[in-house]
Amino acid sequence: MADPAAVAAMAGDGLYNRHSGLQQANLQSALPLLEAAARAIGVGSVGPVSIVDYGASQGRNSMAPMATAIDLVRAHDAQRPVQVVHTDLPSNDFTSLFGLLDRDPASYLNGRQGVFPSAIGRSYFDAILPPGSVDLGWSSNALHWMSCNPVDVADHGWAIFSRSAQARAAVEAVLAKDWLAFLKARAVELRPGGRLICQFMGRGPDSHGFEWMAGNFWQSIVDMEGEGLLSADETLRMTAPSAGRSLDQIRAPFDAGLVPELELEHLAAIPSPDPYWDAYQRSGDAAELGRLWAAMMGAANGPNFLTRVDASRDRDALLASLVQRVATRVEADPQRSRAFILILSIRKRDLR
């Protein structure tokens, strides 16, 4: 049996690359912050530049942001060497990432000389690069994943939606611990004057957001248990290690002086786009809406749910059944997703 608290990477073999259109739409809102940060780095530093992509997954959604950052830090010196480091969990599908860099027309290596990519398989809740070595950090669609699953709940696939106040409190505690750990690690790695841009799932003022789709995913799992495809123990263990944070939770370490080296320059919570709904509005094809949502949920969340079942089970068949059930539910009740994303910009102070 797999470690019940462990966090799995996105679905491999390039599956996440093929089904992450929502994530690609989400990151667009943070690009102006990335552009401003890259321009500042380009003007305010000399010599080689180090850009780090925290939580890169298989790289599809990193290509355009990295290309933009490279060009802007080189605005005054087109020959300036740039190192791009992609980080993710050790189990991540780095093969797809490097294949994309090597062969895909969207690769940021195309038409650019003196760019040196690499990858590190370690959690970003620890420092993973040398002190003072990072000029510009970028993280999209990643920081709502927790370092571990703090609690299993029987009434939902996400403990943040459980009726249990104790379970929700356990999630909040890990969210706070993880956020502080992430910030402290980046405070070590960033150079004075370095910037960090992040975009990830947040919360709205009156709701967490994502309730509709999380509910569809969970009810599909409940249906599978009811039909004998999953045991009650397996269903209990299928509690996702993810949740959104509020604006106050993001501000808390800064307000408490816990990361004095870092300055929070920009923070906003905005409604998440829904490119699948936009396509449905044009086509009226509810089946396609269901397919797109189900494929994305299977690629992003399927591994964390199915790693909780016994290794002897046919996990591919279980995931296929789960994805089909989610698609059927969405097709029967098409809605626009109501979710929220956070975008923020952080600068490391020069305290000398």
UniProtKB/TrEMBL annotation:
GO terms for molecular function: metal ion binding; methyltransferase activity. The keyword Amino-acid biosynthesis does not apply. Gene3D superfamilies: Methyltransferase, alpha-helical capping domain, Vaccinia Virus protein VP39. Keywords: Magnesium, Metal-binding. SUPFAM superfamilies: S-adenosyl-L-methionine-dependent methyltransferases. InterPro entries: MeTrfase_7, MeTrfase_capping, SAM-dependent_MTases_sf. PANTHER family: S-ADENOSYL-L-METHIONINE:CARBOXYL METHYLTRANSFERASE FAMILY PROTEIN. This is SAM dependent carboxyl methyltransferase. It comes from Sphingobium xenophagum.
